[in-house]
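Sample entry (239 residues):
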Amino acid sequence: MNKIVNSAKEAVAGIFDGATVMISGFGEAGSPVELIHALVDQGAKDLTVVSNNAGSGHVGLAALIENRQVKKILCSFPRTAISVVFPELYRAGEIELELVPQGTLAERIRAGGAGVPAFYTPATVNTPLAEGKEIREFNGRQYVMEEAIQADFALVKCAAADKYGNLIYNKTARNFGPVMCIAAKTTIVQAKQVVELGTIDPEHVVTPGIFVHRVVEISNPADESKLVAENVKYHGIRQ
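Predicted structure, serialized as tokens:
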């Protein structure tokens, strides 16, 4: 029952070439930077990544992409004002993109965790994102069928965890974490704090430990916004 591991390196052990990996984060909020960089060091390649965006600057997810470990990404915001890595590789044909509206992305992941194979949404009707997909009409309105997403691994950041893997999050940093935890075969979590059993009120648990497999405590996680800002200044990226 004890899910605690000793290091980020140990936490990402076993992520294999060709795996599908979900990575939490809304911009830098909730991004498991240390786990991502441990995965960079670990070297698994040909990954399919599911994330809200495609990284900023040259840190976190951007570093994983820059190291040519990602063959495809499913995301809502592949480019931001300070994205440099993904746009260059995409234009060069070195990485695939599946663009998914943000609400649809969240629901596809949630459906994967709930065992729902597909659902209908009006979000992309009459757009290029609906091409090749089943379209049905309900009550006089058209809907596009979207398939659920499941993953081999999820990398998630939380505010606190206990040794059983019960998790709580910090405000916006919660974002995609809870749904990714339930949609992955193996959920790997970096927690800012590992607390004693009973410290977290059961009524406040967001992700129950049954969905979590490994937890590593990283008490002083990198401030990705500062790291990105430093990269912006160093590389002369226009904000």
